[in-house]
Amino acid sequence: MITYNFDNAQGPMYLHMYKCIKNDILSGKLKPKEKLPSKRAFARNNGISIITIQNAYEQLISEGYVYTLPKKGYYVADLDKMQGVAVDAKVDYDIKIPVKEEFECDLSSNRVNPDNFPFSIWTRISRNVMANRKEELMQISPTAGVMELREAIADHLKSFRGMLVDPNQIIIGSGTEYLYSLIVQLLGRDKKYVIENPGYKKLADVYSKQEIEYRYAELDDNGITYRALAGSGADVAHICPNHHFPTGITMPASRRYEVLSWANEKDGRYIIEDDYDSEFRVTGKPIPPLFSIDACEKVIYMNTFSKSLSPTIRISYMILPVHLANLFYKNMSFYSCTVSNFEQYTLAGFIAQGYLEKHINRMRLYYTKQRRRLMEIIERSDLRDVCTIKENDSGLHFLISLDTKRPDKEIEKRLAAKGIKIKALSDYYFTDEGSKQHLFIINYSNLDESKIRKTLKDIKKEL
Amino acid sequence: MITYNFDNAQGPMYLHMYKCIKNDILSGKLKPKEKLPSKRAFARNNGISIITIQNAYEQLISEGYVYTLPKKGYYVADLDKMQGVAVDAKVDYDIKIPVKEEFECDLSSNRVNPDNFPFSIWTRISRNVMANRKEELMQISPTAGVMELREAIADHLKSFRGMLVDPNQIIIGSGTEYLYSLIVQLLGRDKKYVIENPGYKKLADVYSKQEIEYRYAELDDNGITYRALAGSGADVAHICPNHHFPTGITMPASRRYEVLSWANEKDGRYIIEDDYDSEFRVTGKPIPPLFSIDACEKVIYMNTFSKSLSPTIRISYMILPVHLANLFYKNMSFYSCTVSNFEQYTLAGFIAQGYLEKHINRMRLYYTKQRRRLMEIIERSDLRDVCTIKENDSGLHFLISLDTKRPDKEIEKRLAAKGIKIKALSDYYFTDEGSKQHLFIINYSNLDESKIRKTLKDIKKEL
After folding, report:
1. What pLDDT is stored for residue B91 in this prediction?
2. CB contact under 8 A, A163 and B332
3. Is the complex ipTM higher than 0.85?
4. Model-level pTM greater than 0.90?
5. Which of A35, A127, B210, B421 has minimal CB crowding within 10 Å?
6. Which of B294, B296, B339 is nearest to B314 (CA)?
7. How far B255 CA sits from the closest chain A CA (Å)?
8. Of the listed ranges B151-155, B262-266, B391-395, the one predicted with least confidence
């Protein structure tokens, strides 16, 4: 029978007891699966109370050193099965992280230029929020987001886009991908979706991973067609009518009414209007979104601050038609809002104090200059003989058509070998089409001018 | 034929043209569906170039004022269908927001006390991050979160919980609810889930909304049983072995091995170990989680900073077994991380500089005092004759058993009428059980002591 010395015991008796037994287990004095004395016997033997030994046993059990078998007693656990407890062991796991290749010049990335983020203003507002809004910062946000931010967004949309929105229609979330998943839950998983071909490949990834049925619909020069929508058999069309990526198509008004008429033909049909980066259409005026000409609650509008501010601040929003907003509040209010209060209040201040509009205007000017500059450089380079710039109205990129006989994929590969990342329009087709024109995408939002001339030379060489 | 005066035109000609036509449409001079002149005729009549009128028409089209019919021409759109464009109209939508009742004393809320948030340290670290980490702040975070935060969490888990984790196993997300949805996508929607009864009701909400098949499993005094797991026919058990809510059960080691043996019996079985608020077990030592004694990659560990820091900062994480981490990186790397870089780096600094452990220790002490104080008040009040405190090991609450013949629901209702919100344990059962004991939950994490005595008197009166 084990006995321990309690003369030098410090603190509670059961803790001393627990340490003694644990040491004996760790040292191997007590062997795995060895039966420990009953509480009664142990207590009698050591001259302590049954409660004390019971507490010690319970602590050992809860830490995994000891286990019980019903009606049999207490046993020493097998420490080899508790590898995690031994904190000094070395971790050597074989996890493969997808490696992102680094390129000398990346024409495929539409990342915003970090130098343009309004750090000083953001820092100041954020500091003010933390100093003066402590109580609100600690109050749990409604599922749809804090009201102050939703009001600021509604005001911004009114002055900037001529959109009339009740702040309660606005749902804040940490990224559009997250909001897509809320829409899937809101409309129900039996809906069939249709996405644009060509289009934003991530949409297909998201719907695939959600195991949602989706199809592709072809575009003509004005965007998705009524015919393609009707032919798809889908219930929900996820489209970018204001700034289609990557073609840059802006859907004209007449087509908008056609698309809305498709949605109105049947109950349960909806349009997700993804307004990704329309703030930066560099030519023409901003156009009113589908949401604004929808009279029948068919359009869910989505936008994000990823482009207008930074993709590393994860705040997006969707605007639900009234009946869907009611459905959302009824069925999905149990969800927590996914954006931190700290950033919700900071962004609310940033918008309400007029800094967002200023920033967008500044960035628009900046991008217009970048765009013009890059086009000039192309037009003055040797590439101009084999390259036609396809002006388009929108976004942070334009297209060039290259005069080549090589397949798009081969050109991409040859240029990648020279440290240049470029994507063809055909990469954004989900089908085998679109590669005859040899259209390539030129993102200029974060381009290093010093590398452009060499890049253009390299492109010409590899055609 | 319309003609306009160009004498006072300022800026580009097409813009003047566009404004003239738009005014005529808005004023009603040009009627809905009225055919506009062809570009050629219009140009000739006004003595301007075809390009100018084409640009004007295109702007009108893109703004929805004009539409085209193929091979027919240009028509005036119906403005009544464009209500959103008229920015001065009044929005009067009928959106019903669920109203949250306000209570004088809320024993049901386990919100943390805002006074305890370490504002000055958080502000300082956040300011440093914004001043000195501009480049990292603008770099897009890996899907799993920025490495600095994941390393800080891995270190914290090692020193605080004795857990050995590769930072690449850690996936950061904006809340556990979001992470649940990632798990559903990772494991596939054909998996059947089992949740604890009683348990955290939100889990049922989340799985319902995701349209995932789930069942309930009964608990005994040691938590979920092998028998209940085996009988459920489920593949994935979502459990809280370290601090079950609301019973407070801590699963003993022997039961842990039983639960793991269930998972190991069949390929594709997993355990989600939700470690919600185990940092605040106020009695006993923290116990090693299931994840640490799992030798066969069966356990997904989840935790959040909602309890340890604030529920209004939306940062949670899960730790995937190696083969699931690989599956995650392979199939789900297209997702953006849902937490802002600004807060990821701030939290990383907060943890790495030792403030999280300090804060947890301080809060533990604070909650222990709160708990002891509240129990003393109850034991000295008149309520003690009809009330037994059920000590439990965990979390920010304890249970009291009330001596009453009224149903739990009736007691809740009567107390609500007096401004007291209290929840019975039976509310957390998904079945009709558990109401015989009249167990009620007392959350003390954010309780106003001045209201306690009156509350206890009211409870006694309404039994």
Report:
1. 45
2. no
3. no
4. no
5. A35
6. B339
7. 8
8. B391-395
